[in-house]
Design goal:
By secondary structure, the chain is an alpha+beta fold. It is about 45% helix and about 10% strand. The protein is elongated, with a radius of gyration of 28 Å. The termini are far apart. The relative contact order is 0.08.
């Protein structure tokens, strides 16, 4: 062990990635890490209940006149405080913490639907992080996880609200696992996206009157695009990617199949006969190219629909409506009509868990809007 008690003694130590340690007590060591440029860092190394090691950064060191840096005595005091708190066993993973949080919440749930939703939320939370040991989890891991979720979200504004709910659930699970443990924790600085809660905070299902108002407010080119979304439940990016050569229309009843690509890769879904006849009119004599085009000849890729759609929503005097609301409406109505969750998930290109989590629990709250439809 090394004497770290004075700046003079620490100045003689070699710069390196691994900390220099001094022993404070049994199972507790204070470390000083200097990689060649200030600030140097104080760290603490503890022995966990299962005999493994837990390393945690305490803060900046005073060396080099770094403002706010901790002296040896201050760092040693912080190390002893951390050592005096209960320690996490090194084998506990993020997934274990989420499972414990899930079981605790499920125990207080009063219905099978609520319990199923909690299970689904927990399963989704574990994706990307569940395998990591809690003692190894870093702020960088969490920021990478958050950034990955945002990249995968096709509708960024609604996606941010969804991610914010995941962040709240994850932090609740991790805080529960670390109950009684001295902070700071890597997840303390994991922040929610600002100004996101008004988008995606709940599923937005259009009533029939709202749907009619939106369609009336659309210019002819956007009308085709929005109609496609409402009649198929496709994501906006999937609708924009539909190519005429990938549409198979039946010669008998005008039904058919469409193959497109988007968030989940390539997928194929069915057209009902009435909508198939409409698609046939849209195609006309064309043999290839995008099905849905703007009047200026451009397609709707790269979210080119957004400005038009926003203007139509304003003309229709609707609130909190995005292009994804068309998909929400299709999926919710399909469930209301008695379609199975598995069948709706397959058609919509998503998972039954996602349908259960995002849509099923919303149905009872919208009943009044659907009466008489």
């Amino acid at each position: 062990m090394t004497d770290l008690s004075s700046k003079t003694k620490r100045k003689r130590l070699a710069a390196r990635a691994a900390p220099h340690y001094c022993r404070l007590a049994k199972g507790v060591s204070l470390g000083w890490r200097f990689r060649g440029s200030h600030p140097a860092k104080w760290v603490v190394k503890l022995t966990t209940p299962d005999g493994k090691y837990l390393n945690r950064t305490i803060g900046d060191a005073e060396d080099g006149g770094w403002p706010g840096g901790l002296t040896y005595d201050a760092a040693a005091d912080e190390a002893r405080k951390i050592a005096g708190a209960p320690r996490l066993a090194s084998k506990i993973t993020v997934g274990d913490a989420i499972d414990a949080w899930r079981d605790d919440r499920s125990a207080g749930a009063s219905t099978s639907i609520a319990k199923a939703k909690i299970r689904s939320e927990a399963k989704l939370l574990k994706e990307g992080l569940g395998h990591l040991r809690l003692v190894d989890l870093t702020a960088k891991d969490l920021e990478k996880w958050r950034a990955g979720l945002l990249r995968a979200a096709e509708d960024k504004r609604a996606g941010k609200a969804t991610i914010n709910r995941k962040i709240a659930g994850l932090k609740a699970a991790l805080n529960k696992a670390a109950t009684g443990q001295q902070g700071p924790h890597p997840w303390d600085g994991l922040e929610k996206f600002k100004k996101a809660e008004s988008f995606g905070a709940r599923i937005r299902v259009l009533t029939r009157d709202e749907e009619a108002a939106l369609l009336l407010a659309c210019p002819p080119d956007l009308l085709r695009f929005v109609t496609f979304l409402l009649r198929t439940g496709a994501r906006p990016g999937e609708a924009a990617a539909v190519e005429i050569q990938n549409i198979l229309l039946s010669e008998d009843d005008n039904g058919g199949w469409i193959t497109t690509t988007g968030k989940v890769g390539e997928r194929t879904f069915r057209l009902d006969p009435a909508f198939g006849a409409m698609v046939r009119e849209w195609i006309g004599p064309r043999k290839r190219g995008p099905l849905l085009l703007r009047d200026d000849g451009m397609d709707y890729s790269n979210t080119r629909y957004e400005a038009q759609f926003k203007a139509a929503v304003e003309r229709a005097e609707l609130e909190n409506v995005t292009a994804y609301s068309c998909r929400d409406s299709f999926i919710s109505r399909a469930l209301r009509k008695g379609a199975s969750i598995a069948a709706v998930a397959k058609h919509a290109g998503t998972s039954p868990d996602q349908i259960m989590r995002s849509y099923f629990s919303e149905l009872p709250t919208e009943t009044d809007s659907w009466l008489g439809e």
